[in-house]
Amino acid sequence: MHLIRPFAGLRPASGRAAEVIAPPYDVLSTDEARTRAAGKPWTFLHISKPEIDLPVVGTNSYAPQVYAKAAEKLSLMLREGILTRDPARCYYVYRLIMDRHTQTGLVAAASLADYESNRIRKHEHTQTDKENDRVRQIDALNAQTGPVMVAYPSALEIDDILARCSAGAPDADATADDGVRHSLWVVRDAEIQGRLTRAFDAMPALYIADGHHRTAAASRVAAARRTANPHHTGEENYNYFLAVIFPHHQMQILAYNRVVADLNGMDAGTFLTRVRENFSVENSPAPVKPAKPAEFGLYLGGQWYRLAIRHELIPANDPVARLDVRLLSDHLLGPVLGIKDLRRDKRIDYVGGIRGLAELEKRVDSGEMTAAFALYPTRMEDLMAVAEAGNVMPTKSTWFEPKLADGLVSHVLD
């Protein structure tokens, strides 16, 4: 089996991409998706968030009829010619443009055997209920419709091929509601496909960036279908998952900031005294966006502070403990504020960096929260080091932007 292979993609018919593409299923609430889908009969939200087409009151998002509704909508979009499937296996070049940031990757079917052997490396734990949801979705549609964002260590040959394949007019081109441009080129040439396949086969590892639940669900579906198929060969489509693979140096991780509800019984002065045990603290006349690792912004009582952790507290050889999210946790959130369970403690919340520092100020100034912490973004090299060590990232460590679109290319399992 190859690490990746081309596949016959299911995608919007010519000129239909703008009507179809939608944000990833897990970045919108049901209410937000329902609002986004209003007046848009062909948006992929009807497939990725099918509960929006069921009664507002009393619908369980995980009920069987939800997945049946998704399958019904997919069938309708095929019958109406909104979606079409390529007649032969292809690779696809996918370019994302967000403001001044551009990244260009390859859409491929990636080997689940290599995922299960950890050649395609992960860095997050998954939650069973979220896995179950994606398993039911894949089974109902007989397709993987949510692409997994994957990184490859930058390789000049692959970078060059992708650049050449995307030099002309795209086969699909659409700008989403958030202003991100999504462009797709179909790679049908067998010789180019072979070069890409061989180049990836030579790689020791790939790295999942975003989409751990989708990958885990695809693996579970494949295991069930292998068991049920007496003629299983390993070549079936269910042995692969839908991936968009970018060179690691092009990927953009934004900060994942923190807000806390209280100061663990302390007043502001006492709290800052405790913080100074492990950090330098400087008043700042302007909002603090950290400029380097181990630097943090603190917003408290209408005032910004610049924090820098003491250098001797940064472990040199532990790829997890040296992450900024862990440094803040280990030397401030835990010992000073008593927040030790970052997943379950209701006193802490997380704000994606796409919302900016103004959102931190808003959450504190409103009285909803007492203090906010701005972090320097996790670097791709740090994520890859954690994955290489076989470890997992702390909770809410990475916020990738721009996001991949659902509906631009899907992977059918038959």
Summarize the structure in words.
- This protein is α+β, with helices and mostly antiparallel strands and 414 residues long.
- It has 2 domains: 4-252 and 404-412, no CATH class; 256-376, Conserved hypothetical protein from pyrococcus furiosus pfu- 392566-001, domain 2 (2-Layer Sandwich), CATH 3.30.1760.
- It has 13 helices and 21 strands.
- Strands 1, 4, 5, 6, 8, 9, 10, 11 and 12 form a 9-stranded mixed sheet that branches. A 6-stranded antiparallel sheet has the order 15-17-16-19-14-18, sandwiched between helices.
- β4 and β5 form a beta hairpin.
- α4 packs parallel to α6 and α6 (128-141) crosses α9.
- The radius of gyration is 23 Å and the shape is globular.
Task: Quickly give the structural class.
Answer: alpha+beta
- The averaged pLDDT comes out at 96
The separation of the N and C termini measures 17 Å
How many DSSP-defined strands?
21
Beta fraction: 15-25%
Low-pLDDT residue spans: none
Q: How many separate domains?
A: 2
Major β-sheet profile = 9 strands, mixed
Tell me the Rg in angstroms. Answer: 23 Å
What is the 3D form? globular
Range of helix content: 25-40%
Counting DSSP H or I runs of 4 or more residues, the number of helices is 13
Feature tags:
414 residues, alpha+beta, Conserved hypothetical protein from pyrococcus furiosus pfu- 392566-001, domain 2, nine-stranded mixed sheet, six-stranded antiparallel sheet, 21 strands, 24% strand, globular
